[in-house]
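Q: Entry one of two.
A:
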Amino acid sequence: MAELKQKGWWAKKTTFQKVCFIISAILFVAALVLFFIMMHARPILGNETADQLYRYPIGTDEETGETLYKTFAHGWALVGYVLASSALHWLVTVMIVFVTFILIFVSNFITHLFDNKSKKSKTISSLIRSLVKYGMMLIALAIILIVWGVNVAGVLAGVGVITLIVGLGCQSLIQDVISGLFIVFDDYFGVGDTVIIDGFRGTIVEVGLKTTKLQDFGGNIKSITNSSISTVVNMSRMRSVSSVTLSVSYNEDVERVEAIILKEIEEIKEKVPNITEGPWYKGIDSISASSINFLVLCYVDESNRFQVTRDMNREFYLAFKKNNVQIPYPQVTVNGEDEKKTAKASPEEVALAVREQKILRGTIDKEEPKKKASKKARVIKKIQQSYEQAQKDMD
């Protein structure tokens, strides 16, 4: 049974997790082997090497100024001597670590007291807790180094130089941190908001100084660096609209279907509690090839929008089924030609249609009859003018 559980535990891990586990196990075993060799170096590496490993400075010769060393028989003796000679230092170190964790706990408790459960306050309190935690850890580390006699000023100078070098080489990291601060204080979005960031839709699970993490409805988590966020659509700040399109057969009476929808809306509102306002009947949305489509809208929270749409589809389907409303589906009806119901064109209609087709095709000039009538009128007018001129000449 234990073997089956072990196989199941191993099978659940991804390839990357398996590789990391194997590497960690190898490093752990190597550390244990190295520790054993250091503790028992004399029988393993010889007396000469052991003397170099197990000697510890105990002071300075006042006459020569040379450092005095004490050699121990094995590693455990060396560890015991170091702990005994620096017991005060270890005690102060433990106290500093304890006090640091107490202060971090108190600061977290205070931030939780001022957290009013809003999304923005959760985001800001999370950021403050992170800053306080890391700041106190750095201060505690500096105090511990002072206790052990380390020159903190020199260390800080070296750290400053290293920070300058790292800053020049890690400009993207600095951009991420600055962008994270702007995101938090400008309140673009907060933990729990449903957003679309550069085409990825999900719920904000964490807003950090460097990255923002989103979780989609499939449970997948995407981490996005803050400086790379270019467009954000926050869908949680305002109420979202959930709509359903109800397709009904052409054989149904429209007014009867509308009356059924209006009667069932109140009951559906009670059956779907995630609806914040509505639903409302908005009329006929479209007339498609096989159905008349009615539109119903309501307001919901973005996190419930898809579920409300599914719930309303189910309730309206049951309501239509209860009231015997026909819901169409794709079908093909083949009918033979019924000559009794087919009207025939009269000879005049046929002639008119044929003539119009010839005009459209360019085989007959549409203005030709008018041109002929105009030419005939000009000829008649010319003949009349000639006759009148002949009468004048005879007189």
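Q: Entry two of two.
A:
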Amino acid sequence: MGMIDKVVPAKDLEAAALDLAGTLAMKSPGALGLAKRAINTTLEVSLKATMEFDLLLKADAFKQKMPVKL
């Protein structure tokens, strides 16, 4: 399952992709890894399990001193 963040005309696709890649490159690799893990895991479980997993990831991020947006 894919996620759509933004829709752009085909002629602007490469520029938009490079802009997004640049934005992601400035983020914490650890935080991006946790976000990817959360998205992939929560697509397959219940809401309760998703919320529990979210708390575990936030605790992991806290231990690693990563900024966490609540």
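A: Comment on entry two: The longest helix spans residues 47-63. Residues 28-70 form one domain.
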